[in-house]
Design brief:
436 residues, mainly beta, Porin, 3 helices
């Protein structure tokens, strides 16, 4: 079967090449990251992995086929080894205006660098950078029609794509999680990933502004409740009947949008999302540090509360001496409509500020520096620093490396919250990439 499949791909590629309608590219990277030492023998302080990505595109009007996916194999942590489709779809234009698409697709609905309240369709790999997690493609049926100075797109998503979580040997893991469970109304027992989800998005260009609005009814991908539904009450206290913990993903409706506009050398960015969750099922979870300090047991049952998340951004573009191009960023985000405890449980970035810059040296080898600082304005002494330097070594080879510093000392000995889970997990990294 595999031989037949690859033979079919070769035949398809050959036919496409003959018609000059085929393009393809890929990369293979040797990845290395070294964490600062911890006191645990159960986790790996060093990761060495091979990352590969391949992309193929075939176009013969009015049809187009796109395939793009990646794989990672880690020498020391098998849980980091997996394969993911990003784009794998067929599309066609009907009457030269209407587009229909079916298959796996990556969506990019964000306007900002670090905070992405509107960009929620794709599941993520949580063993990657918090502010820009790797994405997995979502199985999609899409119908798009032109509308004034933009387009209207209608979506149907038949399946929930399970996120990737760090394994028990990863330094970025706080707890070993069971297989994700979809909570669809009162149904949380079938663990069924095939479920009806749908959405709509309107994009428009008005003057110099790019504006989008969207509506989604789908299973949330980014804000699970972690706990168990297997519990009882003993002497008035809620008690779990298992030591295993599971991420529960709830159905929600989301209304949101993005806005970008250029004012000379300044780019203004806004992004928001209001989320309404189904609340028919409660999950037993560990109480927050605040609630634990009030006594009355270590556990509570809850659902996800409705809330609004918003982000703003300013990007200043400038030319520096020596032909260097600079981009300077200032961004902030916030979760509103819930109290401080709920905000901290919903997201690592619940009220944060990011400052950063990118310097493109415009030399022959495309040297670039990118650095950011994210700090919490609600919780004391929490920050994340990222520094990255990249440079081509030749037409086909590229090197990048840097450091990520995470500081978030635990404030309550009873429980770690938010970025505290990753305190002490700073690391250096290097990547050597061959493009083809």
């Amino acid at each position: 079967m595999q031989k037949f499949f690859f033979s079919f791909l070769l035949l398809l590629s050959g036919a496409a090449l003959a018609q000059d309608e085929y393009s393809g590219q890929g990369q293979v990277s040797l990845e290395f990251r070294q964490f600062e030492k911890d006191q645990s023998e159960l986790t790996e302080d060093t990761n060495i992995s091979i990352f590969s990505r391949i992309e193929q595109r075939y176009k013969s009007d009015p049809f187009e086929h796109v395939f793009r996916g990646y794989a990672r194999v880690d020498k020391k942590d098998q849980n980091r080894s997996f394969v993911a489709l990003e784009d794998a779809y067929f599309s066609a234009f009907l009457a030269e205006e209407y587009k229909i698409l079916a298959g796996y697709k990556l969506f990019n609905w964000t306007a900002t660098e670090a905070f992405h309240p509107a960009d929620v369709i794709n599941s993520r790999n949580f063993d990657s950078n918090l502010e820009n997690l790797e994405k997995k493609g979502e199985l999609t049926i899409e119908f798009e029609v032109p509308f004034f100075n933009g387009a209207m797109a209608f979506y149907y998503f038949p399946r929930f794509e399970e996120p990737e979580y760090p394994g028990e040997r990863s330094r970025l893991s706080s707890v070993t999680l069971q297989r994700s469970v979809v909570v669809d109304g009162t149904d949380y027992t079938t663990n069924e990933y095939w479920t009806n989800q749908y959405g709509f998005r309107l994009t428009q260009v008005i003057m110099d502004a790019d504006i989008s609005l969207h509506y989604l009814n789908h299973i949330d991908r980014n804000m699970p409740l972690v706990g168990t539904t297997n519990y009882t009450t003993i002497l008035g206290s809620l008690t779990p009947l298992t030591s295993q913990v599971t991420p529960y993903y709830y159905r929600k409706t989301q209304v949101g949008g993005t806005y970008q506009q250029v004012f000379g050398d300044l780019i203004l960015k806004l992004e928001f999302a209001h989320r309404t969750f189904e609340q028919d099922t409660k999950v037993l979870t560990a109480k927050s540090a605040v609630l634990k300090s009030q006594g009355a047991g270590a556990y509570e049952t809850k659902f996800i509360e409705n809330h609004t998340e918003a982000a703003f951004g300013l990007e200043y573009v400038m030319s520096l001496p020596g032909g260097i191009d600079g981009n300077f960023f200032l961004e902030g985000n916030g979760i509103f409509g819930v109290d401080e405890v709920e905000r901290q449980e919903r997201s690592t970035f619940q009220r944060d500020i990011m400052v950063g810059f990118r310097l493109a040296f415009n030399d022959v080898m495309g040297s670039e520096i990118y650095t950011t600082l994210i700090t919490d304005i609600e919780r004391d002494s929490e920050y994340l620093i990222n520094f990255k330097y990249s440079r081509r070594l030749s037409d086909n080879w590229k090197f990048d490396g840097g450091i990520r510093i995470i500081e978030a000392p635990q404030k309550n000995p009873a429980i770690k919250e938010g970025l505290e889970v990753l305190d002490g997990d700073s690391y250096i990294f290097t990547n050597l990439t061959r493009y083809f």
